[in-house]
Specification:
Strand content: 15-25%
Number of domains: 2
Number of strands: 14
CATH topology of the largest domain: Jelly Rolls
CATH class of the largest domain: Mainly Beta
Mean pLDDT: 79
Structural class: alpha+beta
Number of helices: 11
Distance between the termini: 36 Å
Radius of gyration: 21 Å
Order of helices and strands: EEEEEEEEEEEEHHEHHHHHHHHHE
Largest sheet: 7 strands, antiparallel
Shape: globular
Strand order of the largest sheet: 3-4-5-12-7-10-13
CATH superfamily of the largest domain: Jelly Rolls
């Protein structure tokens, strides 16, 4: 049924159609590139499990597809082989038998590259951020704070050593001697144990960030207020000078604070959020490319296409076609082989006609 596209009403006053999401589906692939079994299980609202067992014949890149806009933290635990992970915004990591990852990807996308000749086996899970906070009774371990912060701009990645306890728990999820409610109950209990062990390991590995200690609680509050003010009206956002005056921070300190706590400068934060809203609207296929480009501050559509491509790894039309294909043909959250033209990166400067 129609629904409002949350948060992008400044670009679009229309509605779009929700696509059906098929949960609990097992996908088997056997072609020249690989022989794989991928299973996605919705354990309960707010918790999903992903099982992958693949024998790769040719180098392959796969990308989870998920068009939902709620906030999740994900994990990948490797039981065999290795996969290189590109979070499509300049961040990279890998999963293997000796390294597990916890991550947040603001666009819910990441590309996993697996080399030919690899037997890759992994367990993944996704937990809604609100669930994580509730599980820790509001007292999330400091090592996980950056993974549960709201409204992140860039991917957050936490690479952890994998010990025997983690591997033993992950293997238990692959057990196929249970079905129905018993299997889901076992998986939920095991995921919670995995999260607890990962939090313990993260705390042991955690190193303090000295730069954050130079910011008082009042200054940090001012930064968050500035970000809220910046994004409150993206048609007519405040200038850097206006933000600095309102917060009582210098323009340099304001930019330094944004980079430290949000990962981007003030301008980059605005640009990335505008591009993200443009991406959502373009996927709805209700507003033309030129109109969207103009509304997010580009007088020339070619400059918008360049910025979009750098941010998302493909031009707008190609990106929309790939996303539509993925939503129509596979369950949301499973994987699709992609022919990628190259990794995306965060644009480093102002587009010549962006206002």
């Amino acid at each position: 049924m129609p629904r409002e596209i949350a948060g992008v009403d400044w670009l679009l006053r229309g509605a779009t159609e929700e696509r059906p999401v098929r949960l609990g589906e097992r996908v088997e692939i056997d072609d020249a590139s690989w022989c794989a079994t991928i299973e996605r299980i919705q354990i309960r609202p707010g918790l999903r499990v992903f099982l992958t067992d693949a024998h790769v014949h040719k180098d392959v890149t796969i990308e989870p597809r998920d068009n939902r806009d709620d906030e999740w933290m994900a994990s990948q635990i490797g039981l065999a082989g290795r996969a290189e992970i590109d979070f499509l915004d300049g961040r990279h990591s890998y999963t293997s038998t000796d390294q597990t990852v916890l991550f947040r990807a603001p666009r819910r996308n990441a590309a996993f590259a697996i080399a030919a000749g690899t037997h890759y086996r992994s367990v993944g899970y996704g937990l809604e951020i609100g669930d994580i906070v509730r599980l820790f009774d509001g007292d999330v371990p400091p090592a996980l704070h950056e993974l549960v912060e709201p409204n992140i701009e860039q991917s957050r990645v936490l690479a952890l050593r994998t010990d025997r306890s983690i591997r033993t728990l992950a293997r238990a999820i692959f057990a196929n001697d249970l079905n129905g409610p018993l299997r889901r109950l076992m998986m939920e209990a095991t995921v919670l144990q995995l999260l607890a062990w990962q939090a313990i390991i993260a705390q042991r590995q955690r190193s303090p960030r000295p730069a954050e200690r130079l910011w008082s609680a009042a200054d940090r509050e001012a930064l968050h207020a500035a970000r809220h003010r910046l994004l409150a009206d993206m048609r007519q956002p405040p200038t850097l000078e206006e933000l600095a005056t309102e917060t009582g921070l210098s323009e340099k300190r304001l930019n330094d604070g944004f980079k430290l706590f949000f990962g981007t400068t003030v301008f980059e934060t605005l640009r990335n959020e505008r591009l993200e809203h443009a991406r959502i609207v373009l996927l709805s296929d209700t507003v033309g490319l030129k109109e969207v480009a103009f509304r997010v501050g580009y007088n020339h559509v070619t400059n918008f296409v360049t910025a979009f491509t750098r941010r998302y790894g493909a031009p707008p039309r190609q990106y929309s076609e790939q996303s539509t294909l993925g939503a129509d043909l596979v369950p949301s959250g499973t994987v699709l082989p992609l022919r990628r033209s190259g990794a995306s990166s965060v644009p480093g400067g102002r587009a010549e006609d962006e206002t």
